[in-house]
Amino acid sequence: MKRNVMSVFVSVCVVFVLAGLITMQFADAGAVSHEGTATVKAIELDKNIVKLAHGPIASLKWPAMVMNFKVKDHALMQGIKVGDSVTFTFIQSNGDYMVTHIQPDK
């Protein structure tokens, strides 16, 4: 009887741990993305940060401002340099605003 109780307890714990891991893995997948246009003011790839002077972000009711954004992947910044006008997409992730897509304006 003790063995069955222990087996059920371990099984329940495993299910909760797996459910937590799955939830954490897909947390960003459900994040709302926002889009904007900006001028690149600084790039700090060693810190995964890009400083953007962006226009208003309607979806967040933000006015134009200059702020730092985390960069999801260094590869996103290839071909982007300080002074470029860009269009970018970002999400809020773990309390930070993270750029998920960025491209120079044509």
TrEMBL record:
Keywords: Signal. Pfam families: CusF_Ec. The keyword Cytoplasm does not apply. Residues 1-29 form the signal peptide. The keyword Signal applies. This is Membrane fusion protein, Cu(I)/Ag(I) efflux system/membrane fusion protein, cobalt-zinc-cadmium efflux system. It comes from Nitrosomonas communis.
